[in-house]
């Protein structure tokens, strides 16, 4: 009897352990605030995340300078010195860029935003009054027509009120953001620590890559590891080529637009150039997205400047599309225009403005991965068909 009980316990002990573990996991999952844990982990890892992003952005620049320095005889026998000098050059350029942005660009943009908000705050009531006066002077017969006009007037007045209520908070937006919403000191500290971390990441880049390869080699089976490594290499190359070439193209367009805008609307030239340069990162739709607020603001101030601004934007975008873009970018991602438009629309619908930025390279990586898989399967099918054909021919020869 005792032996039978022992056998029963041994038989069902594994099942009991699994049930107990399941109950414990269920209790942990239902009582743990994973959102808080995730937010805390992200907060702790924020300097490392910032450092990783900075290192990834600066890596192509470091490689560019390193290749240039290695062409000199003095550095061919000393590759470490070439790498150190390339990193020093890159980080000096980064420091100069940060200094220029903080000292020159940000104050000018803040000043432009305050001027525009003040102008709109004073202009919109005048526009609303002019519209109401125009509606009152319209001679309309019929109750249905009067109801339509009243409805349109109420809608437009509501829009005016909404814009006015929003605009009046814009002058204090920057100070509110800096003093209340964000912890500026902590954010700056995280960026400084991130820059330091990115320096060590770039110095130890090869060892970090080798370590990641070993980890994924242990986790993934051999056949999946090779595919995964090829996917990561393809994704990295696509993102690097797309964003680097597009950033260079957008910077050139922003500089040209700034000097051209100085002759059309010098008050907000820097702000308009930043808007055009940032939105130009989005293929096809970006130039139109950036041009709309620029032209509208010019139209509110001076209709003639709006006409010249529209012509200038159209000419500049044609120059970018047919001359500058092909020279700077070339066929950087290898997808057709229809695929680019599809990627932008889907990315924007799913993730908003950020999705429009990242939609094209993500689509390029996925498209290339699917294409490679389909081509591989076709080659395997053709090889199988060829092998079957050879076997049938050999059998036919044996029978004859």
Q: Secondary structure elements and their pairing?
A:
Blueprint: H1 2-31, H2 34-69, H3 73-76, H4 79-136, H5 143-167, H6 173-181, H7 184-203, H8 205-219, H9 222-264, H10 269-279, H11 286-301, H12 303-328, H13 337-399
Helix pairs in contact: 2-4, 2-7, 4-5, 9-10, 9-12, 9-13, 10-11, 11-12
Q: Would you kindly provide a written description of the structure presented here, covering whatever features stand out?
A:
With 400 residues, this protein is mostly helical. Helix content is 89%, strand content 0%. The chain is built from 13 helices and no strands. The protein has helices spanning 2-31, 34-69, 73-76, 79-136, 143-167, 173-181, 184-203, 205-219, 222-264, 269-279, 286-301, 303-328, 337-399. Helix 2 (34-69) packs across helix 7 and helix 10 packs antiparallel against helix 11 (286-301). The longest helix has 63 residues, at 337-399. The radius of gyration is 31 Å and the shape is extended. The model has no long low-confidence stretch (mean pLDDT 75).
